[in-house]
Amino acid sequence: MTDLLLSGPGATEALGRRLARALRPGDALLLAGPTGAGKSLLARALIQEAQRRAGREPEAVPSPTYTLVQTYRAGPLEIWHADLYRLASADELWELGLAEAFDTAAALIEWPDRLGADRPSGAVDVTLALSEGGAARTARLEGPESTLARLLGPQPAGVPA
User: What is the DSSP string of 34-103?
Assistant: First the structure.
């Protein structure tokens, strides 16, 4: 488990860029936290950084609240960004194709509590919380130690610990 203090939206974006460095197929990041905690901000920064690293022009990354799932290419890596807030039941997950994405793509899942028993094994939970007053956030990352070590890697200059 790793706890990080994020001083504001820029630090949340920096964490997303940091996670993008070692993202690979089969990774599932389960993004939890209240509305406004920065789940979509983190996902957007991660996706755009992965695209930059793959030599692609970063594309617009809207919240998938109404589309439920958006897919992106970052070189050979496919990234699925899902927002499960509007799902009525876990059965709808399979209609979206998430089972395949968990095996062949990197998945960023907002509102992962909707997964129920279908949560992917080896997933990394990223729980964002707002501090009192909302100026800062905290991020708690929990998952397999080897996955956390790969995703977080050595801390680059200017990225929150």
Answer: STTSSHHHHHHHHHHHHHHHTT-PPPP----TTTSEEEEEETTEEEEEEE-TT-S-TTHHHHHTHHHHHH
